[in-house]
Amino acid sequence: xxxxxxxxxxxxxxxxxxxxxxxxxxxxxxxxxxxxxxxxxxxxxxxxxxxxxxxxxxxxxxxxxxxxxxxxxxxxxxxxxxxxxxxxxxxxxxxxxxxxxxx
Length: 103
Prior knowledge:
The chain has a 5-stranded mixed β-sheet. Strand 3 (64-68) and strand 4 form a beta hairpin. By secondary structure, the protein is of the alpha+beta class. It is 24% helix and 27% strand. It has a single domain, classed as Beta-grasp domain (Ubiquitin-like (UB roll)), CATH 3.10.20. The protein starts with a strand and ends in a 10-residue tail after the last strand. Helix 1 (14-20) runs antiparallel to helix 3 (47-53) and helix 2 packs antiparallel against helix 3 (47-53).
């Protein structure tokens, strides 16, 4: 199916949603386009998003959780994970910390 167009949905959470101003966007990409390339294209349209997702070397920031169809891309091919029609990509900042509680 390589070379065919694929419509993918990219959902955003937390501060990345705030930067884009929408919960989700749909994009037509060539089938087989990488997750990283699709996110770079979206970041070009939403400049506030770029600094949240990418380092100055244009690598995905390690504290951003990205999944394709519910599977973290870290468990797949990382940012090179290929997209196919009807895939859903989720992008969310890592959540850390918590309450130390009163002692």
